[in-house]
Structure formats: C-alpha cells, structure tokens
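Closing statement on the S-adenosylmethionine sub-project.
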Amino acid sequence: MIDLLRHRGIRNERLLTAMSVVDRKEFVPGPFANRAYEDSALPIGESQTITQPYTAAFMTECLDPREGDRILEVGTGSGYQAAILAEMGARVFTIERHMNLLTEARKVIEKLGYDIASKCGDGTIGWKEFAPFEGILVTAGAPDVPQPLLEQLGEGGRLVIPIGDMDVQNLHVIGRRKERYETRVVSGFKFVPLIGKKGWK
Ligand code: SAM
C-alpha cells in the first residue's frame, strides 16, 4: 500500500511513515479485512466508508499537520484518518454524526493507544470549545464551505474540504492569513455526503 502511495505521488515522508505504522486492517470490518491494503474505499456500516488510502494520504498531504498542531476532523468514520493524524503528532479532535460508528472507532483508537478527543454530533458547526485549529479536515462532501469552520480556523491554518454535488467533488484547500482566505482547488473526488446544519439536509 505504501509503495502504491509513493507511486501515485505522495511525497511527505512523515505521512508515509505514519501510514506504515497505523494498520488499516484494524479499522476495516472483518468481512473486508482481506482487502484492507487495497487502494479503495470500503464499507464500515451506516452506508458509510473508510476513505481510500490514496485520498486519505492526499488530503493529509494538503493539510500538512505539524507536531503539536490542533487538528479538527469532521467525519470520524472508522477512525483511520484520525489515527494517522495522531501518529503524525497532531492533537486530534474528531466529530462523527453516527454514534455506532464512533463507538467502534473509539474502541480501535483506544486499543492502539492514541489520545484523540471525539464526540458525536454535527461537525458542520465545528467544535468551538477547542478552536482555533491549525488544521481542519472534512472527510465528507459538502455543498459549500461551512462558515463556522472558516471562523474556527486559526491564523496560518488550513481547511481541507471536498465541495461539489452528491456525485463528484473538488477538494478545496483553504489557507487563512488574518481575515484573508486563499483557496487552491484540486478536482475529481468522490465522498459520502456531509449531512448537517451547514451541509446537505
Ligand atoms: N475519516 C473517515 C475514516 O478514516 O474512516 C472517513 C469517513 S467517511 C468517508 C465520512 C464520515 O463523515 C461518515 O462516517 C459520515 O457519517 C460522517 N459525517 C457526515 N456528515 C457529518 C457531519 N455533519 N458531522 C460529523 N460527521 C459527519
């Protein structure tokens, strides 16, 4: 899997090391365990998926988390992405709207020994108590950028979020410099929908 990520252009060595340490098999439900190292999204229940390894790597490379950064993840899902961020030394805060998924993710995170703050709720409104964040990573596709997430992004921080319709999204990498936001757009991603007050209804 790591060779494939290198082959597809992932260059961040800290990220590649973290992804070689965090065993994706731990986060994949039993019936799909033999496909854990495939470069594909896999079902995790509640009609949701664990993100494809290349997509998780690409988003993390765009986010570029540093040791000690406070990172908010919206869409815990299996907990895999959160574990990668924690393995890279970030302080991770993650929100999931499905309690069943969060319960399973928490079990794996605890088993692997990561210290990650998590809650069940609507991540489109962020997590104000712990803001500002050096990075915010949204792992579900939104119709627009939720304003609360822009507001909770710290000076010099980055928000990585797929924006588009229900079928296809472009990844927006938004950097904050004081009150100015600069956006880079990378096309052609497919995520499950971000459902919530500032997402899809
Ligand atoms: N990061 C996950 C992983 O590593 O397994 C991928 C998760 S999946 C692609 C996206 C997740 O976002 C789903 O579990 C979904 O339930 C969740 N989600 C969708 N809308 C949400 C919202 N408003 N707040 C929190 N989670 C949300």
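Residues 99-112 form the longest helix (14 residues). With this model delivered, the sub-project is considered complete and its resources will be redirected to Aim 3.
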